[in-house]
Structures are given as structure tokens and as C-alpha cells.
Amino acid sequence: MIYLGLIALTTLIANGATRLRLIAVAFVGVAVAAALIASATASIAQTAVTASAGLAAAGILFVAARDMRYGEDPGWRLWLGTFTAAIVTPIAYASFRTITGEATALPLLQDGSGVIAEVSGVWLLSSGVAVMLTARSAVRVSLAALLLVTGVQLLARLVPEPHLAVTLALAWLEVVVALGGAFLIVNERAVLDG
Amino acid sequence: MIVGGPAILLAIAAVAAFGLRKRLVVVTWLGLGAVLVAFVLVSVTPVETTDRLLDLELRATGLGRLTGLIILSIIAMLLIDVYFDEPAYNFFPTALAAGSVTLAVLVVASPLVIFTLVLVGSLVPVGSFTFQIHDNHSVEAAVRHFSFVVLGGSLGLGALALSASLPKDQPASTLVLLVVLLFVAFALMLAAIPFHTHAALLAGEAPAAALALYFGVIVPVTFIAFVEILAGSGLLPAIVQVAKVQDLLLGIGLLSAFGGALLAAGANDLRRLVVYAVISNLGSALVGVATLSGPGIIGGIAIALVTGACATQQLLAAGTLERRAAGQRPNVTDAPLAAGAFIAGGIAMIGAPPLVTFPGHFFVDLIAYSVSGSAGSVLVGAAVLVLIAQLRAGVRLFAGSPEGWHVEPRPVAGILGGIILIALLVGGITPDAFLRPIAAFADEFLKALRPL
To answer: Across residues B59-82, what is the average pLDDT?
Structure first.
């Protein structure tokens, strides 16, 4: 339950930040919270790979910002993103109760049943969709993309597939998304600066 | 390592090309050399060879080999075209990375990893979409493409992960919701109508070679990945049981086929015409898959593969014609060989015999008629509209007297277009070599549809 609160809070901070460097720092919080949630069902190596990709992605955005001034003010879009996630998450959880049809006990910290990973994954996906659809520049598009990929990483933890390969592939995806976002941010800024 | 060798080789070459990207001659030779070696490796790897990388199963299939050889040939042509006609140093590492990812998609067995790789492959070309950013909207186009692809890809990955983790005997509504999400995800990534606005913006703003990389290599592989994921995800039996899901895919395909053809008929520049024709053809291909029948699947995959080659041929020609026209309306007088390649690509795009593009269209149209008369009529209507669009472009391109024609000094797009035309003709004369590996995959797909 604490992790659920943590992921919601860090998402809100990242979503509410108006400067790219603050977004990058806040995304470190999202990545760490996601790694903590994933650690219940993943090996240490897999958790480390996922967390490293999150940190690398945040670092790439931080460097792409170049200074503390560049960013995008979300304004009312912050609340749209938050309320969308708050509405969609319980609906999605009710629709896809993948673990069991019965009521599940939610411990304060580690949760081996996967419920926290599933709920957090859907939260991040719905937040990411809302941020993506309301983004006006590459700054918030990049944040949304990273939230979406982090959500997918959490949902992928529940899959009985080749875990190491999936973890590595998604970690690479996160880095590629960050690189693509950073490339677009740098180009967009060059256009704005004339 | 044998099965994954070509993909790993191209990945290493992409990293090296990134370091050497400003030395155009070196990076071109490096790229062509890597593609050639990868081509040989893909050719000599026996079909049905299996391998393991980490905990991931790799498998060389006939369809993977056929697709791999086609995309490697296209990438080689793009590297040559960019070197001679449109020097852009970002293109070389991008093309090699895209080649690496697409080759990996063709040998990986896990649906989730296939989808992740397709998403990476769709994002890599972003690095080559922006150019002369102060003079055009290529950054805006690249941002929109990035948004659509990440959005679609993440929703699809999420749906796939949830469906794989579901216990058995789920209610139909849950599966329907997940399959619908998966279909919408691929519709976004394939730029199917009505999710095509990012492709439309790209068509107008991105460089022709980058467009050819995307629509000639990435989009066809995304389509093949979609079919492979359907076959490997275990969702097919559920799709068969719920007719509405099949109808949804059929609807997306028909809308895309007809809408793309309508937009192509109204397109006022060559590149948009090609992109909309690709969208229309992919719509037809989706209809083929939606029929869940052998001929439909064979036809759908065949259309997707050859459409990539035609798109490359036409986009490279369009790029050359636009450059030579220097802001004026493109005309045959500026580059007759490129204009010829554009027309040849147009003939191939509509699926005219005796080119190898014909069997795919024929199979899909035929099976669509057997599913429903209206579906077949829509596909034929779409084909007629694409034909009109290509004819209209041809008439505008060839307006004027032939006296003023001057063969372009470096007819790269014309020569490459001629090579593609010969390949399409040879494929049309011996269609068995092209269709047999696709038929083998269709057989696997049908087995996954009705497991014993």
C-alpha cells in the first residue's frame, strides 16, 4: 500500500513539474518506486537492470535540458492527467483481476501476489496516456513516454515469459525512448531559439 | 548465436556507424559491408534452426528469411541512395539500427519481446526524420510520430502483458477488451485510418530516404510482427469465438483500405500519394488477416512485403524528382529515369500482373468476396481509387513534350527503381519461391487458430 502511495505521489510530482530538469529528477522517484514494487516478484539482477534504465533515462532528459529554465507548464493538464489515472485505474483493475477473482490482502510493503504491480502499472499507463494526449511540446511527450514504458515494465512482471529477455528488452526500450525524446527536445528548442 | 548473428552484426555496425557518421565514404562502405555480410548470414542459416540467447528462444523461419533478405536489400539501396543523392549522416546508423531490430523481430519467439523490438524499431527512424529544422515542420512531424508510436506501442504491450498473465477461462468481455486494445495499438503503429495523421504529417516534412526506411522497412515488419504476435500470444482461439473482434479488424482494414485510397486520389504531392497508397494496401492486408483464412493470411503478408519494396521505389524517385524540380512542380524533364521508376512503382503498388504484387491482392480480394460481397467491393473500389491516383500523378508528371527530357546526371533513384522492378518481375514469373515461405507461416497461424 505504501508503494502505491509512493508511485502516485512521484507521478504527481513529475507531472506537475514545470522545468525539464525537475521532471527528470522527479522521474528518478517514479523509477525507484517502480523498482521497489517490481522487487517483490523479480530477481535482484532484473530489478537492477530496470532501475538502471530508469536512472539512465532520467539522466538523458536532465542533460537534454541544458539549463534549469527549459520546460513546459502543465497548468490544468496536471489535474486532467491525475483524475484520468484515478478513474481509469480502479476500472481497469476491476476488469483485469489477473491474480485471482477473490479479495486480496494488501500488505503495507512487499506484495508477492502482483496486485500492487498491476495497479501501479495501470496507474502509470493511464497517467502516461493523459499526459501524452494533452502535451504541447516534446518535454511532456517525453515524460508521458517514460511513464508509459515504466507502466509496461510493471505489467510485464506478471507474465510467465522469459523474464530476463523481457526485462532487458524493456530496459533498452526505455533508454531508446529517452534518447528519442531528448533528440526531439533538443531539436524543438533549436527551432524555438531560432 | 547463429540465428541472432545477423541482427547482432548490424547492431554493432550501427554503433560503429554512429561514431563514424560524419565520414560519409567510410560509413557508407561500413554500412554496405555489414548489410552484405548479414545478407549472406541470413541466406545460409537453415530454416527451422533454433537457438537460445539468454532465456530467449530464437528460431529461423522461411518467412523470417524471406523478409530479412527483402529488408536487407531495401536498406542497401537506401544507403546507396543517401550516399549519392541525399547525404545525411544521421541516416546511416539509423538505417543499420532499424535493420538490426527488424532482423531480431523475425527470429524471436516471445510475443512480448517481438512487440518491444517493433516499438524500438519504430522509434529509431525518428533520428533521421528531422532536417533543415528552421525551414520546415519536420520536428513537429517527428514529435507527433514519436507520440503516436509510443502511445500505441505501450498500450499494445500493456494489453499483451495483461492477456499473458490472465488465468484461464476469463469472461469474453475481458479478452475482447484486451484484443481491441491490441488492434488499436497496431492500427496506431501502422498508421491505419483513422490513426494516420502522424504519417500524413511525416509524408510532407521528413526526407524521402527516411520515409522510405519507415514505410519500406519498419511498417511491413510491424505488420508481420502483428500477425506473428497474434499467432504466438494464444489470443487467436478467443478471437475466433467472438465474432465482433474479427469484425473490428475487418472494419479497421476496410476503412484503411478505402480511406487511404481516397486520400491518395486527392493527394497533391508525390510523397503523400505514396504514403496513402501504402496505408490503403496495408488496410487490404489487414482485411486478409481478418478473414482468418489461409489465402487471406498469405495474401495479407505478401501485400505488406511487396508494398514496402514499391514504397521504397516510389519514395526515392519522388525525392529525386522534388530535389531536381527545386521548388517547382516535379516533372519528367528534370529526371526522366526517376519518373519512370515512380510510374513502375505505381504499377506495382496497385498489384498489376505480371509483377509479384499481383498474387497478394488477388488472394485478398477473392477471399474478401467470399466473406462478404460488400467487403470485396470495398477492396476493389480501393484498388480502382489507387489506380486513379497513380494515373493522375503520372499524367501530371509526364505533362509536356519529350523534347526537353534530359537524363539526370546521377540517376541513382532511376537505377534502383529499375532493379526493384526487375526483382518484382522475376518474383511474378516465379511466385512459388516468394509465396511458399508465407504459406508455411500461414499453416502455423491456422494451427494456432484451432489448437487440438
So the answer is: 96
The cell numbers describing A6, all together, are 509512493
Per-residue pLDDT tens digits for A131-153: 998 888 999 999 999 999 999 99
ipTM: 0.93
Chain A CB contacts of B117 under 8 Å are: 169
Residues 131-190 in B contacting A (C-alpha not used; CB under 8 Å): 133-134, 139, 142-143, 146-147, 150-151, 154-155, 157-158, 161-162, 164-167, 173-174, 177-178
Q: Which chain B residues contact residue A183 at CB under 8 A?
A: 126-127, 130
- Cβ of B150 and A177 within 8 Å? yes
C-alpha cell at A181: 525524446
Does the distance separating the beta carbons of B162 and A98 come in below 8 Å? yes
Q: What is the DSSP-derived secondary structure letter of residue B87?
A: -
Q: Are B64 and A170 in contact (CB under 8 A)?
A: no
Residue A91 near chain B (CB below 8 Å): no
pLDDT in tens, A2-29: 888 899 999 999 999 999 999 999 999 9
Average pLDDT in chain B: 91
